[in-house]
Design a protein that fits this description.
- There is one protein chain.
- The protein has 292 residues and is α/β, with parallel strands linked by helices.
- It has eight helices and 13 strands.
- The strands form three sheets. The protein has a seven-stranded mixed β-sheet, with helices on both faces.
- α3 crosses α8 and α7 crosses α8.
- It starts with a strand and ends in a 14-residue tail after the last strand.
Length: 292
């Protein structure tokens, strides 16, 4: 028996849960966990089920196709035993990169990192030492289209289904955002838009901020305004320095990004217009990945 996850979203109406669970039961599947939510504002229903089956996901999806059409469902069935394939992109701040590499290496994050792309060479030796292909793709205003084409070629060549911007300090084009919609995750400090530009932590320190936060979101053409996946904060006091703010901020950024990637690769995130629906982790999801 293999663990699968089924994601369903559709206009809300009576009978959806019965149709989904009834099909899985008839197909001999054992439902382990189920979460659902109805957005009353736009009348849309979201559901995620984790189940075990000795059938493959493609066959199950084909068998469910008629029901999906009847309910106008967007439906996806994925095999949870298969690792997601991801590309990490980084510039010169390596805390998120290091954290994701470590979690992947110890099995705490079930993602296969198939490449690391950077516009600098600072982390080339480290990445290569982990037997991960490293690509240095320089970016200037004049070469931006060629650089993005090179990035997308790496994505296609590796079969990556996810790009993680682990403090990659370049703005992506509208075209790339559209092509990879819902498949690029970014991390930034939560001071935006209050503290824009360089040294946001210094600006926060000078204003006496008491909460440092980070936000992970899907990338869209609107800079740092994509649908939010995960956020967190940590308190600071008047006794801490601007350098303390930076250090604490890096810790929050790394943790928030890792949790967002975990939610995405376990198919717990649904796009819902400018927002997301993020279901909690199923029982055992973290334990199975040796998070301790």
């Amino acid at each position: 028996m293999t663990n699968h996850v089924m994601k369903v979203s559709c206009p809300t109406r009576a009978g959806i849960v019965a149709a989904v669970s009834g099909y899985l039961a008839a197909a001999g599947c054992d439902i382990q966990d189920s979460s659902q939510f109805t957005d009353q504002e736009n009348g849309r229903f979201f559901m995620r089920l984790r189940f075990q089956s000795d059938r493959d996901g493609e066959g199950l999806a084909q068998g469910f196709a008629a029901t999906a059409r009847e309910f106008q469902m967007d439906c996806e069935i994925r095999d949870l035993s298969q690792k997601a394939r991801g590309v990490l992109m980084v510039s010169r701040f390596g805390h998120c990169l290091n954290d994701l590499l470590y979690r992947s290496r110890i099995g705490a994050l079930l993602v296969e990192i198939v490449a690391v792309i950077s516009n600098h060479t600072d982390y080339q030796r480290q990445v290569v030492n982990e037997d991960i292909p490293f690509h240095c793709i320089r970016v200037t205003p004049e070469t931006k289209p060629e650089a993005e084409a090179a990035v997308m070629q790496v994505v296609r060549d590796t079969g990556a289904e996810l790009i993680v911007l682990a403090r990659y300090m370049q703005v992506l084009s509208d075209q790339m955002c559209r092509e990879m919609s819902g498949r690029i995750i970014n991390i930034h400090h939560s001071f935006l838009p209050s503290f824009k530009g360089a040294n946001p932590y210094k600006q926060a320190y000078e204003r006496g901020v008491r909460l440092i936060g980070a936000t992970a979101h899907y990338v869209t053409a609107d800079l740092d305004e994509g649908p939010i996946i995960e956020q967190d904060i940590i308190r600071v006091t008047h006794a801490q320095s601007a350098a303390d703010y930076v250090s604490l901020g890096r810790d929050v950024e790394a943790q928030v990004l890792a949790r967002a990637v975990h939610a995405h690769i376990h198919h717990r995130v649904f796009l819902n217009g400018n927002k997301t629906v993020v279901f909690p982790a199923s029982p055992g999801e973290y334990a199975s990945e040796r998070m301790g």
